[in-house]
Write a structure and sequence with these properties.
alpha/beta, TIM Barrel, eight-stranded parallel β-barrel, 21% strand
């Protein structure tokens, strides 16, 4: 799988990235079927398979349960092989999400994530929006803190995982990367991709398969990459067969 540029970040990502919600959390998720958390051996084999097939992008977050801690153990000695997309702003405890968008919280969250992931940098740190995109992005102190992280070398790129077109465009005006949603059934954020294409900014798509509810994977991935603004798509799976199928489909598209 050929790696491509993520906007102007200097990062080279696999067009298909592996989401790791299922590595550490099975409560309050929107997948069509329940699942047990895999053991370390299963995840080790899954990551080995992913890497062998060309995947280098991993998506994680503090809100993904024990995902960060598990990746910190599983990726020991392999840090340079992976592009880690991290987040801050959402916490998940006792089955409920809560949000904190203060600069102080982000500083503590990033410090914790670095320890959990057993690394001294995160490739791209995204604000984990609760849907109030513009309120968050108009917080000048928070945006300055994000840029401070980048200036200190703690992160290589900054951005936000947004929920609105307006928020996505604002993210790309202020920072480097937006994680947006764009599917055959949901095109309201198409303007984010158009802005990214015009200004050479980074866009990673989430929910491209509608959290597992879209069974036509080829159509969904082809739709995603038909737009030139798309750099990568995150797919969350813990099933090796599904991962291999997704990559085979992707290789036929890219």
């Amino acid at each position: 799988m050929k790696h491509i540029a993520l906007g102007q970040t200097g990062l080279k990502i696999s067009p298909l990235g592996l989401g790791t919600v299922k590595f550490g959390r099975n409560q309050g998720v929107k997948y069509p079927q329940g699942f047990d958390l895999p053991d370390d051996e299963h995840l080790h084999d899954l990551l080995t398979l992913a890497k062998s097939l060309g995947i280098n992008m991993l998506d994680t977050a503090p809100a993904y349960g024990t995902s960060e801690e598990r990746l910190g153990t599983l990726l020991a000695g392999q840090r340079d092989d992976w592009v880690i997309i991290g987040k801050a702003g959402e916490e998940f405890e006792d089955g409920k999400s809560s949000y904190n968008f203060t600069p102080d919280h982000f500083e503590r969250s990033l410090e914790r994530s670095l320890k959990r992931l057993n690394t001294n940098y995160i490739d791209a740190l995204l604000i984990h929006s609760d849907g109030t995109d513009m309120d968050i992005l108009n917080n000048d102190a928070l945006i300055r803190k994000m840029h401070d992280f980048k200036d200190q070398g703690l992160v290589k790129a900054i951005g936000a995982s947004t929920k609105t077109a307006q928020g996505g465009i604002k993210t790309l005006e202020l920072m480097d990367v937006c994680m947006a949603t764009y599917t055959p059934d949901y095109t309201e954020e198409k303007s984010v991709l158009e802005y990214a294409d015009k200004h050479n900014k980074g866009v990673i798509l989430k929910k491209a398969l509608s959290s597992g509810h879209n069974t036509n994977i080829e159509d969904a991935l082809r739709f995603a990459f038909d737009h030139k603004g798309t750099n990568g798509v995150i797919i969350g799976t813990i099933t090796p067969k599904h991962l291999e199928q997704n990559i085979a489909i992707m290789n036929g598209i890219i």
